[in-house]
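Subject: Interface between my chains keeps coming out wrong

I've been trying for a while to get a sensible model of this assembly. When I model each chain on its own everything looks fine, but I need the whole thing in one frame so I can look at the contacts. Pasting all components below, labels as-is. Any help appreciated, I'm running out of ideas.
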Amino acid sequence: MSSIFVTFRSFRRLYSAIKPNGPVKPWSHARALTPSHRSINGGRTLMAVQHLSSGRINIGLIREAARRELLDCLDRCDGVKALAWDQGLTGPFGLIAEYSLLKERNVTKMLLIQSDPVPAGEVQHIVFLCRPHLHLMDRIADIIRMEERLGGRKEYSVFFVPRKTLLCERRLQDLGIMGTLTNVDDYCLDIFPVDGDVLSLEHPLAFRECYLEGDFTSMFYVARAIMLLQTLYGIIPQIYGKGICARHVADMVQRMRRETPASLTSQPPQFDTLLLLDRNIDLLSPLITQLTYEGLIDEFFGIQNTNSKFPADKFADPNEQKGSEQGAMASTPTLKTVSLNSAEELFAELRDLNYHAVGPLLNRRARHVKEAFEERHDAKTVGQIKQFVTRLPHIQASRQSLSTHTSITALLKQRIEDSVFIKSLHTEQELFQGIETDRIHPYIEQLIAEQAPLVKVLRLICIQCIANSGFKQKVYDFYRREILQTYGFEHLRTLERLEQAGLLKVYATKTYSSLRKTLRLTVDEVNEQNPSDIAYVHSGYAPLTARLAQCLSRPEKWRGLEEVLKLLPGPVVDETQPLPSGLEIRRQSRGAVGSYDNPRIVLVFFLGGCTYAEISALRFLAQQEEGQTDYVIATTKLINGSSWLQTMIDSAT
Amino acid sequence: MCRKLRVLNAVSYFQIGIPITLTQLEKMSLRVLIDRLVLRRHFCLAIRICEYMQVPDTEGASRILAHWACYKVQQSNVSDQQLADQIAQKLGDTRGISYSEIASRAIDSGRRELAIRLLDYEPRAAEQVPLLIQMNELTRALEKAISSGDTDLVYTMVMQLKDSLTREKFLMTIQQLPVALSLYMQLCRLEDKTELKDMYEMLDRKGDKASVCVEMALDATAPQKRLDWLEEAKMLYTTGRHLFEAKVTDDQIKLLGHQKMLEGKLSSKFVGLPLSDTMYQLMLRNSPFVEKLRSEFKVPDKRYWWMKVKALAEAHNWLELERFAKSKKSPIGYEPFVNACHDNGSRSEAVKYIARVTPESQVKCYVQVGSLEVAADRAFQLRSEELLEYVQSRCGASRRSLVEKINSMKAQLAQMRR
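Reply #2:
Try treating it as a single job with all components included. I did that and got this:
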């Protein structure tokens, strides 16, 4: 039972990893990315992590701690290593480490626990990196047994992300392989740094587990992640929140603080407020199509760990003439991976814009680049030429990224001008404005008859249901029957799950229309080029979550909103965490929080996922003059309506 | 230096009796001196010295307090409650004190009740739980695990309870603890569906039990087994008053029956297809059985028309399609006819239906079948600049004359406006 004492060791270990005078290990800088993560920025990979540290909160610290911890784990395994990955972890790990780093630590092979056959030959040590899921334990046992049968004399180690669980250990024992394992330990990687102001747990099933299966494990991990953030950036004095999960997390965080030795949290506080937003309070926002640049890319092409894949033939490379062999290859559609993060200046500008504002900005930038390039004619003296040459790499990089984003915009344009998309969007907008929500919508009926993808149909039906605060029984039964007859009886479970999650329901009380009015969720006149309200992210609909954050940034906070908050499910959280006495004074001497020079920093934690549009809305709020609030966004997973619904459609978890 | 001398002075007092020199103290370190004081039970003095010498709490006061508490625990003349209160009062929630350590000392000296009381003060669930297990206080351990929010602890406790209690007792215990119950059910969901079903039975949640049956039916490979599960689900849905679910499950059972029959007749795969696909397959074969399915499952007119138009066009059964179009007024308009014909490669058939399409949509239809000129004329007749624009946008570079024609049309329209 000694293993049970591990919970807080992890914090301690982590703390020693980040302490300035802690054991410093040499590690290399990002030199080359793995082939699969090859970034379009080519030579700019050295810069690839700097954007994490450019914000007011240095997110880079998290990455550093995670890398150090990874190397610690690897150093505990001797010999030439093969890394066996849990499939769900490979993507997020690209945010932490690159292949060359692993190579330096004697990792010569990578394989997937879920699929790959075992590597034969020179590998001496197989290191499994996985989430603590029971079915993975079975796979690991299979792999080890197969390896033993082949007579290979190898060592094996298992590291669990973010921690090893007794349940998994027990399973390993039952499988009889516990004895063959050299190390069984945790790799406490609680949260992944996605961008300079975005963090993610990469836990896609959190919402489903909490609200469909009554399993709040993910919220425990959220609390741990918040503890990690408090270790790095100090105690967060104010906690606000709304929803069942929010209450749960706030309680756990406070409890964990009591459990942690005081010395671990002696940093001066950098965050002023923690805002916990339960996805359950706002089911509508993720369903509505995101119309920001980044949001649209996610809707159409999907963004995984800041990477997105596009048809390669749509990208003209300005530095390369199209060879004849390239034409021959065009028959097989290859995909081009583009990494999308704020390291790229242009993307940082584009990502939060409404789609309609993207074209004009690209035009302006194209002119700038051209002008900068033309300056070479004005360079007369040697000094001027030299100056121009030093600027040249920067100009070329801008030109490259301009070309990339022009191509992406063209791809988006194609999809947006598709008549089906226009019609769906139009329907969506009617619905969230409360028009014709109480009867069978002819367009949805048509989509079902045409057997449009189920996710798309469900998205619209759920929007209609929420906008009408529930269906009349007759309408509800009609939709359900249509879906079952068209997409198959197996979706009876899908429908039941959606009902359980509150996405589908029978009409009870009219909540949506009063929420819409009091929180101004829909805005009629939206200036997409030069917006004045967060509703621009959906061209007329403001995400409720972001609106709550906006209200919280007022001096009166959520006071006066009691009636509205009552309409949303779950309790309100409003807690103050006492600071260690010395820090309290230092904090006050820092000057008035919320002034222009010293904006309040709010950590918004979305419990159950958030969309890129919601992030954009928060960034927009931070830019507003009267705001004086900066946001750092953390989430269990970055989602969009389709990926989110898909987690509820799939039968197996 | 001065402080050290004062310390030396204090410990050489006759009631303490450690007359050592400064050199001796420096040799053996303050820590050892404190240890000696603790061993001699001069707790108070030791703490004072620590405070005076500014020894950090974790090494000084907290450690001494812990020793004090451990010593206290061994005093058997004081009642458990009193002792626990005393200890808690002194220790408060001083950080860095492990109540579990003190409690385990209490267990060693055979004072279970005291240990349990002390553990209540321990903030770390991960420390409480194993001791409680050691004392066989399983239910209490489970409660502590739940209040910590650490689901792994809860899972462990649930499994432990399951192994050590009788089944009835186990079920009774976790039924009272919703968190433990739902986690146990989650485990069942992943590992053992039959147990999950039994749990729902016990909780009298018929709808949920029926859902498990549905899942088992979907997982089943043997056709008879699948039907059995569905029958059970249907019965449960009915008794649980989930009328819609009961009806659709019944429909599914009937559909599977029909599909089996069809497979025998038409030697093609039907079992497991959704109703729509089944009907579509039959429409492709022009089988009259479609009508039976249509009325039995009350397929709405619109969807029926959509399917039929698409199916007939795919089968290139143009004659039947025309007859169908004329059979009565189409509930879905005639645009789908045009699209279906065009998608299946017959422009001439497509054109036939354009006349019956609503005027606004006609322009689009003409564009689709490639008659841009006609489309432009229709748009002009409708006096719609927007539609003209649309037609123009579809003109390639080769249709320059048409582009110009549309330009002049637009100019004319503009003039008429004025």
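Reply #3:
Confirming on my end. Residues 243-266 of chain B form the longest helix (24 residues).
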